[in-house]
Amino acid sequence: MAEAPKKSLFALLRESQVWNSIFRHGPPDNTRNRSLAVLTNVFLHLHPVKVRKSGLRLKYTWCAGGTTFFLFLVETVTGLLLMFYYRPTSEYAFSDILDLRSQVPLGIMREIHRWGAHAMVIAVWLHMLRVFMTGSYKPPREFNWNIGVLLLVLTLLLSFTGYLLPWDQLAMWAVTVGSNMARATPFLGNEGPGAALLKVGDISLVHAGDDARFALLAGRFVGSGALLRFYVLHCVGIPLVAAVLMAVHFWRVRKDGGISGPL
Amino acid sequence: MPAKNEEYARSLPLLNKVFAWSSLGLLAGTVWMVWDDYYRPWKRVQREFHALTAKKTETAIQQAEQAVDQNALKQIQEDLKAAQAQADQRKREHDALREKLDRADVLVFTTDTHYKNTKSIYDATRFEYEELSHQNSARAAEQQEKLRKVESLLAEYKLANEKALATQAELKKQEEAILGAEKVLEKKRADLFAGVERLQKKLAAVEPQGFLMKSFEVMRNAPLVDFMAPSLKIQQVVPNGQNKDINFLTIPRVDRCQTCHLGTDQTGYENDPQPFTTHPRQELFLAGKSPHPVDKMGCTICHRGLDRATDFFDAAHWPDSSEQQAKWTKTYDWAPKAHESSPMLPKRFVEASCLACHSGVVHISGAAKWNKGRDLVERVGCYGCHKMRGFEGLRKAGPPLTRLIWKTSPDWAAKWVENPVAFRPATWMPRFFGLANNSSPEEVARTREEIRGIVAYLFEKPEPGGFPRLPGKGDPGKGEKLITSVGCLGCHAIARLEKTPPTLRRRFGPNLDGIGSKAKPEWIYAWVKEPKNYFPETRMPNLRLTDQEALDITAYLTTLKAPEGWEPGEAAPNPPLLDRLVEQQLRARMTAEEVQAKMASFSEHDKEVYLGQRMITRYGCFGCHLIRGFETTPPIGTELSEEGSKEVDRFDFGYVKIPETRHDWITQKLENPRIFDQGKVKTSDEKLKMPLFNFTPEEREMVVTVVLSFVKEKPPLSSTYLLDARHKALEAGRRLVQEHNCQGCHLLEGEGQEIRATIARKMVEEEGIGEEDADSRAVAFSPPFITGEGARVRSDWLFHFLKGPTPIRPWLAARMPTFGFTDEEADTLLRYFTALSESPFPFETPPPQPFPPGEMAAAKTLTSKDYFNCFSCHQQGAKKPEGDPSGWAPDLALANSRLRPDWIVDWIKDPQKLYPGTKMPTFFDPASFDTSGPDDVLGGDENLQIKALRDYLLTLGSARMGS
Amino acid sequence: MQGFKAAVDGICNPPILFSLIFALFFVAFLWKRVHWIWTPKACILLLTAGLAFVGFGLTDPNFHAILTKPDNVPIVGMLFLVGFFSWLSMYLGLKNDRRTAANLPPVEKLESEIKILVWPDLVYTEMLCMILWSVLLIVWSIYLKAPIEEPANPAKTPNPSKAPWYFLGLQEMLVYYDPWIAGVLLPGLIIVGLMALPYIDPNKKGNGYFTFAERKWEILTFQFGFLVLWVMMIITGTFFRGPNQNFFGPFEHWDVHKLVPLSNINLSEVIWVRVFNVGLPQNWLVRESFGITLVLAYFLLVPMVLGRTLFKSFFEKMGMVRYQILVFLLLCMVSLPIKMYLRWLFNMHYVVAIPEYFFNI
Amino acid sequence: MPDDPKASAAPSPVPAPPAAGEGVTRRGFLSWIGVAWVSFSGALGVASLSTLRYFFPNVLFEPPQTFKAGFPDEYIAGQVDNRFKESFGVFMVRDAGVIYVLKAVCTHLGCTPNWLEAEFKFKCPCHGSGFYISGINFEGPAPRPLERYRVVLADDGQILVDKTRIYREEKGEWQDPESFIVA
Amino acid sequence: MKRIASLVVAGCACAALGMVPARAGSIVGKVTYAGPAPAPKTITVTKDKDVCSREPHPDETLVVAADKGLANVVVYIKDAPAAPKMAIPAKNPELDQRSCKFHPHVQIIPAGSTMDVLNNDGILHNIHTYPKNNTPVNQAQPKFKTRMSLKFDKPDTVKLTCDVHTWMNGWLIVAPHAWYTVSGPDGTFKLDNVAPGTYTLSYWQETLGSQTAQVTVPATGEAKADFAYPAKK
Question: What is the per-residue DSSP string for B826-845?
Fold first, then answer.
């Protein structure tokens, strides 16, 4: 039999010390080992050992939350790789993007990153829609819903900050238009209601050089300062906060009774 | 365990199947991605180029092999055999030598080692001594002693080493004597095949031979491993400092064009198709020694397009013609690239790039199309309506209209304004009426009324004065002769006399057709006598005509009548229409009541004058003409100083279906300036008003090139063409040369002497010789070449000559006119000519005095009849040569005051070199200079003879040289 | 075909389009007669119709140009996904409603009783999802290059210049509201409202399973906000707003020179000048007193009236504070369509116009 | 058509637990899962390799390794030319009938030597190593002569310096015909 | 048998004929002027009259004989790749300047040959050439230089003048191959040793320009190629 040596080889492998040092349980074909497979694995132990059957149903969950998380991972990996070729300065940003297209090996990384980002925004929305439609924000999950809303905002911000980085006309003006709204923040933006009241004599305290938009852009218009600021926010600031919130989110999913279902 | 827990929610085999299929999909996707990333179009292009080069190299190898001198090879091989045999014979001797040499090598090594060791000890000891003595240590003296010892030891070892080296060298020399011949021959043989070998290496590089090398070639370019030593590589140039300027940003340029355009800087691909073609004019572009080497300038600085692109589409190629576009669409799927503000310039407009770096010059050498375009722009006076950088402060392009009645009649003017081309097909005056947006019957009625107004305004209150009646009668036949000979045709063309279209320089002055129907004879007479009386700023010079000559010319010019069927005349007045138009104009500026009051106060004539004034404002006539009341009105057109950088979406293409590019829009605008009104509803005041210029398609292309060259982007100072003192002098001079059309008559800097064609034509007609021969004959009978004028004549003479010319060349019928140069202008021209010939300004060295004995006598002999017989042709003051003046030559009595001494020497040595085609024969054959002079004068020394001639000539005329 | 295109372009005119969408929305959700659209057959039909429309549209150069802009492709995908999943949730919800009506527990209830081991069912599924997503992303990336235009140039504004697509709803609101409302207040309220949702939702039913009957109000409100005021605004902002932020039908050429009359009038002008036929008062407070009163009335009086009438049950269930928050948020949301209609029907620029302090409503 | 609520009243039947070896043959099972894992690892492998490849840029923005250094007659015999010292780190030397290119790096500790015209030698400013015009060391701590770069005549007659190939005297490589050009 | 043999012989003969270089024919003809003969003009000598007036100076630019024969027409075969090179003569062709006149007025020399220019007048002349392909020359020839050489490398039609005596005027044809000739005073010409075939025959006259005609040259004998120049307008 041709399979005989194969089988025995596999068996041998299974008996080896190396194998056993890694997998501390037998083949996951019985309940105990199947539980252990999840419990003893650092990546899998995010999950409980058991879930409701409804939580397994695509029709029910749409797999939107998982997809979002997966896309977050994709964005992290591709983003990390892109940082090797991208310099967030006004002189180089644009041409570095051009180079990603014209000469960098596997410059397709940028496409994956960008489309992944769009997909992630969509996935978050669908996730929210699903959670709402199944009423899963209701007690005891109110707090987790709130975390989710924050994560939605962060996802949009991640996408928005990343939008500037190619430093082309599309990017710059999208961000100019987007960030212009900040200048209308009541009291904090120089064209916001109430800003005109913040005045000592002739000296206005809120003007284009110190308002909310200025803080966002590090300047009166979208320039090198804004590029650097958005880069740091995009690569470090927001992902960090998002990662923390995600951890809380996942943890709360389990603590609040697992993937939701009728109580 | 309860069985319930063993439940599986899904069918594992199904999941496995899904897993298998999706993994296969993932694998396929990943591989596809890698391949997609790897397979770039430029790699195919590079492979093609390698194949092409291989083919060429193979042919070259064959040729080189055939070129190898077989006889020489045979000889070398035989010699080599002999040399080997000889070396074999002396083998024993050589062996012994070898042994000695080995020993010598050992000795060299040991002595050298000793020396080096001792040297290090010496350095260390010296350091210690210095240290100790610095510390005033007691041990310093002791150390010094030690140092001295080491020093002597060092000297000893050095000596020994030198000796050993000398021995070694001597032995090597001996060995050379035995083996040398063989080596030399080997080298000779290698040299014979050097060319072939070099080519073979090249071939191996582009087309590896043999299975091993071929597989290696595949390997090194394979996906994922192609980072090690690929032969297909992106070629890029990072031009220093040639950044792209975008507002506050400077993006470094990285030109990757040569990734595909591989043959550009190599010769031998001239006839190959793109992208491999050799760049034309290597002496100017790309080559290392040219002013624009590719590794410093790159490509996109001139051609534009996206510098970093490695793909046909991304690079923003732009087709030069619709055929090319069709071809590109087929081969490359070409389509206009959106979001590219600087796509490549179509080839025909590429000279538009020159100006950015070569700003502030009149002409850019090598950019013929741009130069001509610039001349055209100046000629037709685009700057009158459009502000453009570089055209500031120029005279208005057209004549003044402040004293029009002196010259012509309102009837003529009205008809002329309506359609200048109908009267004079080759005029520069553009056409405002009867164009795309104003030729409907109502429009024509309206515009005729407008013209009535304009004419009424122009003839209203002219400057007082006028010209007296003609003093006599002229002969048109003589007039024609004069016109064709005194030089009028250097600047003017007369259709009746032309066989081929006149060149641009010969269209410098107005075309004279129909002048007899246009101008009053009194005016013509006064004008040709002294143009500045009528038009102080005119460029028309004074030809110093006698009264009779002027009368003859007047008589001839009055015979030049308007084309058949052309009649002067104003349109009949149309008071209701006039009222409406005037009201319309007034209404835009005042209330209805005010309008009524105003209308009531106007007489019919007042209304016309008012309408005329409004229309002159609207059409901007004052851009080109001086018009009373509009002396300081600013121009009406859009500024064009940065037109070449204007965003394409800021051009209004209206409903005209043309490709949306700058050059297509500008071309269209020149071709049919009102077309963009097509399909739009506009009031008469809103309509486009740019007039139609009388350009041929080629001329239009030239003008577009110039307009495209007005860009916002400024290249860095380091790559700008900066003018040094000499070039500043040249530029200032060129501007004057340009303004006075010197090149219409003279050949200057390789261009001009366009009057020659008319002289040749005359020769053909009058002497009956063939056209080609006439042209080369005409060289000598045309105004002279003056490129070398700065080296030829004395500055002070030239100054006075320019201010008031006197005849120099008796055989020329054409006269140097009096331009009325100011001192500054004459000075500028002087500096220009001296800068052009790199001659000293303004002084020149007089030859040393006194002359050597016998020199004058020798010179006199040389000039005598039996020798060079100079005065057979040359005038000498009042002494005229025999025969017709057409065979005469310049007055040698002028040499003293006119010519530079050094130039005379050069001139006598080889006149043809300084002035190809001159009538002055070569007396001293440059090919056999030392034997070309007479043997019996000054000992047959040609240089002395020439010097003697010069010195003699300088004593002729006035006593400037000192008697 | 030209007729069809012209008809579509005609419909795609803000007042008509939005009125149509509002009507369609309420009809689809509330009119029982048309609930057949929440069946699989109808889904397939609608999807096919949608695809057919897109497919047909792509033959038109203008439509093609807008739809295939690289950054717009995901939006098209998003539209189909949002549509499909909205349908799916309604389909499942209605199914459960029928079960509830028959006194049966919802489907999810049955399944949630059963617990399944995560290994391998869940993790395996997750892994397959990841692989399939990877394949999708890779193929998508190979086919569609990420856009890159010209280098950023602060001196040259592209026409139109737009925010990233997910913010185009906000940009669209800017047409009707000043930035401080459209760009700051309303987005802030959206976030606040979403976060407040679990606390102001008095309905205890429908937790953890799809249903419509049990949560009509909530679903209607949420979907109105999401589908109509968010997604529809994005569609408008992305596909219908062309150069100069002018409105263009999907088959219309984006002509830079298109001109549309845009003359708007403030409420104060209407009242003082048109109604009272006097000049505008100097004092802004006096000038805008009507507008301010109106706005105050909207936010203060309307809740009171509603609490007594339509929302009586809510008011009783939730108590004062939660009720006020709920109604305030609802009123804010509804203010957008109100303002839109005011603009379309009366050319109303501002209800309250105090440009002196950048305070315009 | 509305679903019959009763029809789906019962939960969908749970599939029978597919215990290993049951239902499916082991072979079939193995082959599907085998194909799956092989192609999955294959995909991961390709992805990893290409990620590795990502770290090797295709173009560099450093000064090029080969450059054209003008025409031979631009160099004066018996002189060391410093024109490319700063930009490319080389001395161009024309001496004894040949032109060669010395790498401007001292063989001792890598400083850049200077050419002292008056003393006719290279002198390293760091530790005083001295080299003859040929590049051979004669004083100071430098252990071996300066290195030479490959130099050839390009097709257009210009000198082409190739810094990727080094010739070392102590290995006898200065005899190589590409370590100098005859001028 | 006999028949076959004769056929073979005939065949061989034919073949041999084909191989042996064809015998050459010649072209003879007469160039005439169609218009009325222009009245003979005499050039007025304005300079160095004692020397220059030794000979009469008729205008040589268009010389028509009484029977309309046109002199000084260059007749040659155009585009003849098979034509033999014109042999370079052992003795250089000469151009004589006598009585301020070029002798001969029109001359044909082979390309690559050197022409000797003679000055027999004992006064200053200068030979000024107007070539199209060769380098132009304007060489003075004072009294002491009685003989001067000019080399012409490329085929050309060269106008010759003297700038001292402006009326002096001559032509030099630098011929690329041997099938060139110039018509005599009576207008007749003869081209010898022309391989059989059909050619374009070119006629060139300094004021009348170029004309062409077809001519077929037989294997032996003469082809007639009379030609009448259309009258000058």
Answer: HHHHHHHHHHHTT--SS--P
**Residue E166 forms contact with B (CB below 8 Å):** yes
Domain D66-182 has CATH 2.102.10.10: yes
CA distance B179 to chain D (A): 17
Runs of H (alpha helix) within B779-932: 789-792, 795-803, 823-836, 855-863, 895-898, 901-909, 911-914, 929-932
- Its domain, for residue B257, covers 244-319
Do B187 and B258 share a domain, yes or no?
no
| pLDDT > 90? residue B457 | yes
D8 touches C: beta carbon within 8 Å: yes
- pLDDT of D139 reads 80
Q: Which of residues 28-47 of D touch C (CB under 8 A)?
A: 40
Q: Any chain E CB within 8 A of the CB of B769?
A: yes
Nearest beta carbon to residue C138 from set B9, B30, B246: B30
Cα–Cα distance, B219 to B230 (Å, whole number) = 9
CATH number of E24-229: 2.60.40.420
What distance in Å separates the CA atoms of residue B587 and residue B63, rounded to the nearest whole number? 86
Around A136, how many Cα atoms within 13 Å sit in the side-chain half-sphere? 27
Beta-ladder partners of D139: D130
Whether the CB of D36 is below 8 Å from some CB of chain B: the reply is yes
Number of domains present in the structure of chain B: 7
Q: Give the C-alpha separation, D178 to D167, whole Å.
A: 9
Hey, of B1, B5, B36, which one would you mutate to test binding to chain A, going by the most A CBs within 10 A of its CB?
B5
Please tell me whether residue D114 adopts helix, strand or coil conformation. strand
On the question of pLDDT at E232 being above 80, the answer is no
The maximal CA–CA distance of chain B, rounded, in angstroms, is: 142
Contact assignment for C184 to A192 by CB distance below 8 Å: yes
**What whole-number percentage of chain A has pLDDT above 90?**
49
Task: Give the Å distances, CA to CA, from B851 to B848, B938, B951.
Answer: 7, 13, 8
Q: Do chains D and E touch (3 or more CB pairs under 8 A)?
A: no
Question: Residues in chain B, how many?
Answer: 963
Domain boundaries, chain C: 2-116+209-245, 267-360
Give me the number of domains chain A comprises. Answer: 1
Contacts with D15 from chain B: Cβ below 8 Å? 8-11
pLDDT one-digit tens code per residue, B908-923: 998 888 888 888 888 8
Q: What is the DSSP letter of C272?
A: I
Name which of B13, B37, B254 is nearest D29 (Cβ-Cβ). B13
Q: Is B730 on the interface with E (CB under 8 A)?
A: no
Looking at beta carbons, which residues of chain E come within 8 Å of B923?
Answer: 140, 142
Q: Can you read off the two tokens belonging to residue E22?
A: 């064809």
Q: Which residues of C touch B23 (CB under 8 A)?
A: 131
Domain identity same for B255 and B276: yes
Mutate to test the interface with E, among B781, B874, B922, B938 (most CBs of E within 10 A): B922
Position B217 in a domain: no
On whether the CB atoms of residues B304 and B245 are closer than 8 A, the answer is no
Instruction: Give the per-residue pLDDT at D1.
Output: 37
Query: In the block, which residue shows the tokens 């065949």?
Result: E11
A199-200 and A203-204 beta bridge pairing? antiparallel
Greater confidence (A192 vs D3) lies with A192
The stretches of B470-574 forming alpha helices (DSSP H) are 476-485, 515-518, 521-529, 547-558
Whether the link from the prior residue into C261 is cis, omega within 30° of 0, is no
User: What CATH code is carried by the domain that includes residue A180?
Assistant: 1.20.810.10
D165 close to D152: Cβ distance less than 8 angstroms: no
Q: Does A9 touch chain C (CB under 8 A)?
A: no
The dihedrals phi and psi of D122, each to the nearest 5 degrees, come to -85, 140
Looking at the structure, tell me whether residues B143 and B167 fall in a common domain: yes
